[in-house]
């Protein structure tokens, strides 16, 4: 049986160390489903908070911001099949949120995975492997399930959520370790901070308005809400910072800091520093030096930024580094961080 976590423990041990590999903002997709009569399955992977409107009804009945199927399913379970937004991932656990589903929530769920190169060959009859075994759910609740044996041995490309026998789920997250496809040519330059290459924001000073994980997403986003933004500081000498575990130990050539959509709240200055942990990218966040330690080497010195613009900086030191730290002086918002370089031998 999966281990059931509290929200605090799940956020500390899982969310900060792993990636939601099916999230819509990462490029995850719903490929197929058994039924979505009352509310579409695509709502499951939305990044926005669940919305409830008690006055809103549609042709099928009550409107829900989630996935809801018909009553009286004659099969064992309803299901949704997802494609990961990354090349593949080993999975540690999941979050199932039944917010606002009272008398119609899913009673039980399970999660399975499969590795496939062709989406068209993935369906209910695929050779699904168990990730989270069948476990009970409750109405209007967030559930956090973690595999007792740790990460899956296999890295999966597709996933299936089953709910027994039918009902509704508002949001669904699958957390795991991205298994990137790194270049064979040692001269190939990649963005090793990208979540698609295994980058993860592992420590952050503040994320009052939006998460530092957004720094590593593909694209430039749609609005200010899908970047990293901190609260306003008032004290002298304040800085905000985010520590990023790179997808591979990297010799850094160039760094890009993007302030897209941050027009009145961009940081006055930024700097970027690097650190090579003795354990490389496997180092635990707690083992990293404090943000003000001289063990962090300067890659980009204090540099002015501006509104809604991409800023490119040549690396003053190439490393190699397993982690980088972006510092905002004194605070504000940044949309994306790119760390371009080659994989260190």
Automatic annotation (TrEMBL):
Under InterPro entries, the record lists: Allantoicase, Allantoicase_dom, Galactose-bd-like_sf
Pfam families per the UniProt record, alphabetical: Allantoicase
Q: Where is the Allantoicase domain?
A: 27-178, 198-343
Q: Name one GO molecular function term.
A: allantoicase activity
GO BP terms:
allantoin catabolic process
Q: Which family does it belong to?
A: Belongs to the allantoicase family.
**Official protein name in the record:** Allantoicase
Organism (species): Candidozyma auris
């Amino acid at each position: 049986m999966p281990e059931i976590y509290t929200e605090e423990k799940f956020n500390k041990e899982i969310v900060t160390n792993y990636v939601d590999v099916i999230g819509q903002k990462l490029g995850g997709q719903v490929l197929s489903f058994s039924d979505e009569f009352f509310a579409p399955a695509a709502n499951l992977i939305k990044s926005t908070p669940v919305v409830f409107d008690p006055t809103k009804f549609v042709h099928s009945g009550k409107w829900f911001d989630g996935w809801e199927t018909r009553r009286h399913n004659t099969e064992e379970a309803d299901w949704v099949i997802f494609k990961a937004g990354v090349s593949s991932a080993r999975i540690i656990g999941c979050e199932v949120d039944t917010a606002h589903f009272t008398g119609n929530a899913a009673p039980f769920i399970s999660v399975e995975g499969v590795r496939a190169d062709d989406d068209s060959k993935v369906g209910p009859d695929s050779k699904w492997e168990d990730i989270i075994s069948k476990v009970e759910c409750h109405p209007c609740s967030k559930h956090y399930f973690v595999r007792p044996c740790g990460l899956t041995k296999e890295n999966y490309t597709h996933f299936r959520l089953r709910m027994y026998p039918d009902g509704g789920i508002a949001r669904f997250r699958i957390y795991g370790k991205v298994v990137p496809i790194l270049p064979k040519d040692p001269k190939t330059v990649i963005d090793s901070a990208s979540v698609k290459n295994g980058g993860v924001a592992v420590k952050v000073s503040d994320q009052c308005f939006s998460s530092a994980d957004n720094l590593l997403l593909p694209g430039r986003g749609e609005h200010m809400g899908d970047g990293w933004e901190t609260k306003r500081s008032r004290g002298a000498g304040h800085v905000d910072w985010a520590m990023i575990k790179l997808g591979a130990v990297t010799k850094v050539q160039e760094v890009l800091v993007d302030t897209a959509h941050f027009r009145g709240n961009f940081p006055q200055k930024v700097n970027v520093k690097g650190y090579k942990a003795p354990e490389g990218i496997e180092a635990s966040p707690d083992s990293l030096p404090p943000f003000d330690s001289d063990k962090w080497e300067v890659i980009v010195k204090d540099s002015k930024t501006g509104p809604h613009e991409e800023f490119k900086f040549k690396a003053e030191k190439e490393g190699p580094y397993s982690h980088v730290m972006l510092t905002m002086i004194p605070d504000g918002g940044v949309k994306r961080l790119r760390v371009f370089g080659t994989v260190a031998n």
